[in-house]
Design goal:
This protein is an all-beta fold and 248 residues long. It folds into 2 domains: 103 residues, Immunoglobulins (Immunoglobulin-like, Sandwich), CATH 2.60.40; 123 residues, Immunoglobulins (Immunoglobulin-like, Sandwich), CATH 2.60.40. The strands form 4 sheets. Strands 2-8-7-4-5 form a 5-stranded mixed beta sheet, with no helix packed on it. Strand 15 and strand 16 form a beta hairpin.
Length: 248
């Protein structure tokens, strides 16, 4: 969204021993397949390279692999018929690349490989236990967030207390990130109401992944999450709007 940059992942090398049909020379079998990068930001250009052996090597080749026909399906409607193929993903999403080899006798073998195309180098989402944002001053709001990138799996975080999902210590890929939740609420040291033109006010800001907060006063507030990936010097923000009324 904000900038496009490719995140290169190592090529995946699959040994023949792990593929069905390797021991039967009457059928074609993949001995190696590379799809790089396996993840990146759209527009994402990937290169696929397949090596196949075995099967009936007679006939006229289109793939250059022992007279075997190599067909690529990139999961976005695009296809190719060659040993080395290229595709450009323009829409974010998870795609399954399917490679099929067929010999002149009709023997086939197929293998798949996942590719992830991201809208941004760091995709984040902030949310709470009040998705509509309508609360009272008596409500306890539990905030949380998700992050996704080529080397951050959003599902690797496991809280110490699953019942409350509150955890001061990060886990999984979230240890790579830093968090700043600005609750859009503050007060002066003397306890006076919040005054944005005064330099001596205290603002509620949290640096945990999932803080808990209650608004002391009625009003409308925009809670802003700023998530930073220091290794890339990338910061992304998400905002939650709350309408707070006095508790009955």
């Amino acid at each position: 969204m904000k900038r496009a940059c490719l995140i290169l992942l190592p090529a995946v090398v699959l040994a023949c021993a792990g593929l069905t049909g390797c021991n039967d020379e009457s059928k074609p079998a993949f001995t190696r397949i590379n799809v790089t990068p396996g993840c990146g930001v759209v527009p994402l250009l990937v290169e696929g390279y397949a090596v196949v052996s075995g099967g009936d090597e007679g006939g006229s080749p289109t793939g250059g692999n022992n007279n075997l026909d190599i067909t690529w399906s990139f999961g976005d409607g695009h296809t190719a018929n060659t040993s080395i193929a290229y595709n450009r993903y323009t829409d974010p999403g998870d795609y399954l690349v399917t490679v099929r080899a067929e010999d002149p006798s009709g023997n086939t073998t197929t293998i798949t490989y996942p590719v992830r195309a991201l809208a941004d180098s760091l995709v984040i989402e902030a949310f709470s236990n009040f998705p509509g944002g309508i609360v009272t001053t008596a409500d306890t709001i539990r905030f949380d967030c998700l992050a996704s990138s080529c080397d951050i799996d959003p599902d690797t975080y496991v809280p110490d207390d699953p019942a409350t999902a509150i955890d001061e210590e990060m886990s999984g890929d979230y240890v790579k990130l830093s968090f700043k939740w600005d609750m859009d609420y503050g007060f002066l040291d003397e306890g006076d109401p919040f005054n944005p033109d005064d330099d001596e006010w205290f603002q509620y800001v949290y640096s945990t992944k999932n803080p808990v907060f209650s608004f002391p006063e009625a009003g409308e507030y925009d809670v802003v999450l700023a998530m930073t990936y220091p290794a890339w010097a990338v910061t992304r923000r998400d905002t939650l709007h709350f309408v707070v009324s006095e508790a009955p």
